[in-house]
UniProtKB/TrEMBL annotation:
<feature type="signal peptide">
    <location>
        <begin position="1"/>
        <end position="30"/>
    </location>
</feature>
<feature type="compositionally biased region" description="Gly residues">
    <location>
        <begin position="398"/>
        <end position="411"/>
    </location>
</feature>
<keyword id="KW-0732">Signal</keyword>
<keyword id="KW-0677">Repeat</keyword>
<dbReference type="InterPro" id="IPR015943">
    <property type="entry name" value="WD40/YVTN_repeat-like_dom_sf"/>
</dbReference>
<dbReference type="Pfam" id="PF15902">
    <property type="entry name" value="Sortilin-Vps10"/>
</dbReference>
<protein>
    <recommendedName>
        <fullName>Sortilin N-terminal domain-containing protein</fullName>
    </recommendedName>
</protein>
<dbReference type="InterPro" id="IPR031778">
    <property type="entry name" value="Sortilin_N"/>
</dbReference>
<dbReference type="GO" id="GO:0010411">
    <property type="term" value="P:xyloglucan metabolic process"/>
</dbReference>
<feature type="region of interest" description="Disordered">
    <location>
        <begin position="392"/>
        <end position="411"/>
    </location>
</feature>
<dbReference type="InterPro" id="IPR052025">
    <property type="entry name" value="Xyloglucanase_GH74"/>
</dbReference>
<feature type="domain" description="Sortilin N-terminal">
    <location>
        <begin position="153"/>
        <end position="278"/>
    </location>
</feature>
Length: 471
């Protein structure tokens, strides 16, 4: 399961308000959404290859973040306000769960194809990989049929998403699924979170111990259609330990069950929880948002401590560090990585590293045929030059807007180094790499309106950042 760091209901409404104001003055080819990232993935076979889902497309790098390519939404098969869940499988394939089915690329993002057969037109709400075998993927489809009947199914692939078969039987027809995960220590153990379709719309966890052949249901306290439960993770060593984020209106909570969903304990609450990550060894857990900063706890005690004020929009934890999505203007980068437990972050994506569509994608591919014509409008909207200098990305040591010595950023998101060159914006050096330097780039590229709206949004967000501690 990929934790939905931006809830499609609550966050979508917030973004819609900002987008309505932006849309009138943005290029027709841009979707008008506030530029941000909501999911970050690291290739299980190549830690230098990173994929980021943003509000304006999918971004990829093969060199650890020196240069990034942009894949437009249209080439993948979606548009507008949709935020598909993505995974990278063992051979580097990328799978995207769309409202209209599954889109997959097996050539590093050039050609995207929509799956046929039983997945055709199925509304996919989550997709995941089996940790013990990354070439094995699972996905969750949940579609409302005629009347009150709901079709909720789990599908599985053993060949990196090339062929699929249903895993077990349909879930109950009155159950709407929202997230899916398997237990790393026992792939036959599947979890699906969601809610019942009346009369109380009680939130529930469905558990299977036989890869979907049978299902057992457990209520998740405090959850319903207004407080949906989203799976966060399953402990890598104990299949009975499962974490769920309960999404509420201005009051999110983290719950844990240590008996496979039979009983639950609330361990943390905050204004919002956009990010969740469990360390690879299951020893630590990180949560956060742009409203509450970054909090980390040992899983033995689940006593959370705030480690930074970073405006978290997504989290991923691998053996190489804790990766986070952030707000570039407020925090100095769009994506960064921490190797000290979240105390500091080194930027891996700043907008001056974004170089346009992948040059290796020929016009015979969906990306090569579609994205180049859309890039100029997107680059203008983002306030970036639109191309990178030939042969090099940002200069060595540059961290594109928020470097400290060695390119590290403090947990507050305030940088102190000098801006990068070679492939980035030609900014005035007096900006000293702070978010204001990015604003200068945006104005120079015709992005003054977007910059002004970002400053106002940042001011509102900083005034609202009063973190709530663990319960």
């Amino acid at each position: 399961m990929i934790f939905p760091s931006s809830n499609r209901i609550a966050l979508g409404l917030r973004i819609a308000l900002a987008s309505a104001a932006l849309a009138a003055s943005t290029p027709a080819s841009a979707n008008g959404r506030y530029p941000s990232a909501g999911q970050i993935l690291v290739d299980p076979a190549d830690p230098r290859r990173i994929v980021l889902r943003a509000t304006y497309g999918v971004l990829t790098t093969s060199d650890g973040g020196e240069r990034w390519s942009w894949i437009c939404e249209e080439s993948i098969g979606y548009s507008g306000f949709e935020d598909p869940m993505l995974v990278i499988t063992g051979d580097g394939s990328i799978l995207a769960g769309l409202s209209s089915g599954l889109s997959a690329t097996h050539d590093r993002g050039c050609q995207w194809d929509i799956a046929g057969g039983g997945l055709a037109d199925l509304t996919l709400v989550d997709v995941s990989i089996d940790r013990a075998e990354p070439s094995s993927a699972i996905l969750l489809g949940s579609s409302v049929l005629t009347g009150d009947e709901i079709l909720t199914q789990v599908w599985a692939s053993k060949d990196d998403g090339r062929t699929w078969a249903q895993a077990g039987v349909d879930l109950p027809s009155a159950f709407l699924g929202v997230t899916l995960d398997s237990a790393p220590s026992d792939p036959r153990r599947l979890y699906v979170s969601g809610r019942w379709n009346g009369p109380t719309f009680q939130g529930a966890l469905q558990r299977s111990d036989d890869r979907g052949e049978t299902w057992e249901s457990f209520d998740i306290p405090g959850s319903d259609d207004r407080n949906l439960p989203y799976l966060g993770a399953v402990d890598p060593r104990d299949a009975d330990v499962v974490y769920v984020r309960r999404d509420g209106d201005g009051a999110d909570a983290l719950l844990v069950s240590k008996d496979g969903g039979a009983t639950w304990r609330e361990v943390f609450h905050a204004v919002s929880l956009l990010g969740f990550a469990l360390s690879p060894d299951g020893a630590r857990i990180a949560v956060g948002s742009d409203m509450d900063g970054l909090w980390i706890a040992p899983t033995t005690t689940l006593e959370f401590t705030q480690v930074g004020r970073l405006g978290v929009r997504c989290l991923t934890w691998t053996s190489d560090g804790l990766f986070a999505c952030a707000d570039e203007l407020a925090d100095g980068f769009t994506a960064g990585v921490s190797v000290d437990g979240g105390e500091t972050f080194s930027p891996i994506l700043t907008l001056d590293r974004l170089c346009g569509p992948p040059p290796a994608c020929g016009r015979e591919t969906s990306t090569g045929a579609t994205c180049p014509a859309l890039w100029a409008a997107t680059a203008s909207f983002l306030g970036v030059p639109g191309r990178c200098d030939a042969g090099a990305g940002p200069s060595a040591g540059a961290s594109g807007g928020d470097p400290a010595a060695g390119g590290a950023s403090t947990g507050t998101g305030v940088g102190t180094g000098a801006p990068g060159a070679g492939g980035g914006c030609a900014c005035d050096a007096s900006g000293q790499g702070r978010p204001g330097a990015l604003l200068s780039c945006m104005i120079a590229a015709g992005g003054a309106l977007l910059g002004a709206r970002r400053r106002r949004a940042r001011g509102l967000r900083l005034r609202a950042r009063e973190p709530r501690g663990p319960v």
